[in-house]
Every structure is written in structure tokens, then in C-alpha cells.
Amino acid sequence: MLPGTGSDDIFVRSVFEIPLAAVGVRTLAPTPVPGPRLADAHLAAVDAAAAVEPVLVGGVSFGAHLAAEWALRNPGRCAGLVLALPAWNGEPEDAPAALSARASAADVRRRGVDGALTDVAASAPAWLAEELARAWPGYGDGLAGSLELAAGRAAPTPDGLAALRVPVGIAACVDDPVHPVGVAEAWARALPHAAVRTTRLAVVGRDPEALGRAAVLAWLHAGGRPG
Length: 227
Fold this sequence. Notes:
α1 packs across α10, α2 crosses α3 and α4 packs across α5.
């Protein structure tokens, strides 16, 4: 399971580990490698996990994009996808999540991590501000570059997603302006075997596993088989 932009393995485990264990799947979550190697390091971690047998791959936001990207490159090694909060299709352009990541990167470069976090604390839900206050310092000097890399990387296109034949579960929050539920629905329409389940940001703030449960339930509905 791959983390989102500026997030880390701790959060992605809190989302997926117990919901996946409930269907007999063990969670592996790589620690981010900050800076220009961020995406390549995540994809390499999935390659290593799939060296012996096909794996169920997933992630949150940018991590969901990378999981689907890897599946398109490795159809014979992917057993399915469990995705949360995809943020755009194809090129990021002016997608809200891309705009937010670029703005955060610029703020980090201008004021440093601590300065940028003061604005996050003032504008984001308290649980998200606390999560980023924990995760961002771990990126060190690579935080701004990591945010910029994610904001500039294309996600799979609908035509690309149509080539994936594995079961795909997608979780979305109906009240998330940064990861619009319409994007999740567009991914599901493009995928041959996919389902969407939704929750709300406030619920995820109290119970991160709610996001993972929604994705796993959607994957089961799409034809996923427990381990």
C-alpha cells in the first residue's frame, strides 16, 4: 500500500492494515524516499513485493495513482487494486489536489516546513493538520520536491484504465473537495471490474480504517477474493 503526497507508511497502514487483514491479506507499506526518486522508489517496492507471486496493490491519493500505474505495466503480477481518493485522470493540470500540492511546495520553499504547517493548522481539519505535522518533517529537505513531483505526474487515463482486468475497489469521501468523488466514479466507469464505496472526511478523521474498509468492500463487490 502506497501513501499519498506528503503522507507516509504510518498513515497508509492505519487505513489499510486491519481491513486487509480481515480478508486475509498482509499489508506492506514502503517508507517514502523523499525527493526526485519518490515515485520510482515506491514502484520498485511493489516490484520487489511481486517477485514471487501476484500481489494486491493500492494506496491513497498519489499512492493510488502509482498503484494503478504499476498494474498497467505489470498486468500479470497484479491480483487486484484497492484504491482510496484518486485525485485526477491523465495530466494533473488544475486538479484541486495538484494545485494544493504546488501551493504547499511553494510555501515550504518560502517559509520552511514549520512555517507552512502553521497555515495547514489554520485551514485544514484538525486530524489532517496533526497527520501532516507528524509526516512532513520526515521528508526533510525533500518535502517540497516530493510535493512538486506528485503534482506534476500524470495519472492513468480512462483509456488506460480500461485495459485493467483485475477487480478494483475504490474509496472516496463525498465531502472531499481535494479528491472529488467524481474522479473515483470516473475511474470506476473506465475500469471493467470496479466498484466505489464512500465515506466522509470527518469519519476518516475519527477512524482512518473507515477509508480502508470502504476500499476493501468495494474490491470484494468488484470480484476480489479473500486471501
